[in-house]
Amino acid sequence: MAGGNHNTAREEKATSRGQSEANRRLKYISLAVLVVQNASLILSIRYVRTLPGDRFFTTSAVVMAEVLKVLTCLLIILLQRRFNVKDTVYFLVDSIVFQYKDTLKLAVPSLIYTLQNNLQYVAISNLPAATFQVTYQLKILTTALFSVLMLRKSLSRVQWVSLLLLFAGVAIVQVQQEGNKEASVSGGSNQNYTVGLVAVVISCLSSGFAGVYFEKILKGSSASVWVRNVQLGIFGTVLGMLGLWWNDGAAIARRGFLFGYTDMVWAVIFNQAFGGLLVAVVVKYADNILKGFATSFSIVVSTVMSVYLFGFHVDLLFTAGAGLVIGAVYMYSLPKATASSSSSSSSSSSAVAPRTDGPELEAFLPKAEPPSD
User: N or C: less crowded end of the chain, CB within 10 Å?
Assistant: First the structure.
């Protein structure tokens, strides 16, 4: 009897060891995916926007990414419904049309995300990739401030200190760039550092507001990540088409929707469309510390690659500013000290995790799968 219990305990121990090993492996995979997606999207956008020759219309790229995202999510929902088309159609009509109030809640964040995606192209077209990557971390500051103001959440002292360091680091980088414009923005007359900086600041403000607004209106929602993305994508496509017509309508009517599209442009669009969805799946296996480390590491990757790809100049001032930002991001992701009871632990998630992409998508993660019809 004792021998049987001993064997059972040994088997349970081996099983738990195997599970922890699998979880550790998934965390490393998550880290790699987050770093690659964060860095590659920014670097690839910068690359295609600084190439000589015909420029594609960024408004059309935003619309195309939304369409691809919706089609992908519809395919996944169809797969979950075992390719039962009738059941899938009924489910989507019920989730999107009959529950129209729930769908309409996503109109505001979808408008903000569409604006943000367009601003991202504007910012990266006018700023070095490394500078954009560092400055874009201001979204952590805006998200935290909106969380405190709109959701009455509390931040730990370490998090407040990290926000101050973050702001100081971004400010140092801007001072460095202001004094080094010729080196940081490589010679095109159509590149404007001020326009890029304004675009990234507005993008950070919109990112922070959208993330907190999402948490506020969708708290307790049981809709799946894929349904949420279909709802967002529908609004995003319509709003993106309106933006396309307003900004580039005449030029697109003359030259065509796909004018200037190359293999590299398609790669950027696919990265923007599928990268965020991939991160939404992977991020379930990554805790806040890992996400903070991934963000920090992607800044390093973007900076190193910018030196080789774009001749970006890294000096002592930029290194100091970027170092402060990297340290602040990691500090902010650290869990709060459990000072006393459950009230403290419940507020440990006080700060909304920053979006990693663009629509970046942690806020869409379902708390429960919807019941089958």
Answer: N
